Amino acid sequence: MQLQDFHFDLPDELIARYPTEQRSASRLLRLNGESGEVAHSKFFQLVDFLEPNDLLVFNNTRVLAARLFGKKSSGGQVEILIERIESDTEALAHVRANRSPKPGAILVLEEGTELEVLSKDGALFELRLLSGDWHSVMQAVGHMPLPPYIDREDELSDKERYQTVYSKVEGAVAAPTAGLHFDDELLDKIANKGVDTAFVTLHVGAGTFSPVRVDNILEHKMHSEWYELSEEVAEKVKRTREKGGRVIAVGTTSVRCLESASTEGGIKAGSGETDIFIYPGYVFRSVDALITNFHLPESTLMMLVSAFASRKHILDAYNEAVKEQYRFFSYGDSMFITAPFTGQDPDINR
User: Fold this and answer.
1) In this predicted model, what pLDDT tens digit does every residue of 255-310 receive, in sequence order?
2) Which end of the chain is more exposed for a tag (fewer CB within 10 A), N or C?
3) 3-class DSSP state of 241
4) Which Gene3D superfamilies match (predicted)?
């Protein structure tokens, strides 16, 4: 399979720079991954398409105010994006500057906090605060790390809207965006219908926005992200499938967590790093349906949803979404893939 197989044309005006006024007022495109049939609705109508035996699995990661601005001791401007906090004072980060800082360099943040560059490994710098702790620093001067295609400065409202209402475990530098459409009222309606819910954690890294740089996608190396899935969630997944219900992943990050914890023998509780790469031909072991936003052309997330519903059905649905003026990407509209593709996919042997 070639990278260009996952391309589609998207007018710039369909990229959502801001969220809808109300979370659940976004649009919802329903796709039957088996037949390719498409239907249109609003996200608040999701409850009508769920059954009491279903299990919704959410990612409860919370986005850090991980973008920081400052200067080098020479006076040059720097922009820091924290990728992962390793301790109260040490973190791995992406650093943008006219000239890459060397180990031993001192960087000074906007409010005067100093940090030292300890080392560099690939694209990431290891940084150490010389005073304070990362949580306090980000709370004081951190900016929400909006994706690069939202080409504007972050605003005060983003601190709330670029988080899910159920976010709990800090550690992500990008939101699990399928969950942004849920509000408390909709969650209450889902619970009242008898639909069960479960929460996993996968800390979304900046690598989720990294472009695939090889033509043959099988040569792509996935970034690694930390996940955790509890024994309680594993048992809920098992019971749901035993009862004939659907395990519905809310977002591709929930898919990555569930499938990382699954083998042919079933799903098991666990935590650790995952670099799972899901593309057409992958056999899903724990996910029966998927709620997801619309993804970037030629991205690994396009490949993941194409594995679930087939590349043809996904591209046809995306072209329909463009035609119907859906809003795309993190602050955009959503898709509910109600059933997986189970036929013979010609993409698998390409």
Assistant:
1) 999 999 999 889 999 999 999 999 999 999 999 999 999 999 999 999 999 999 99
2) C
3) helix
4) QueA-like
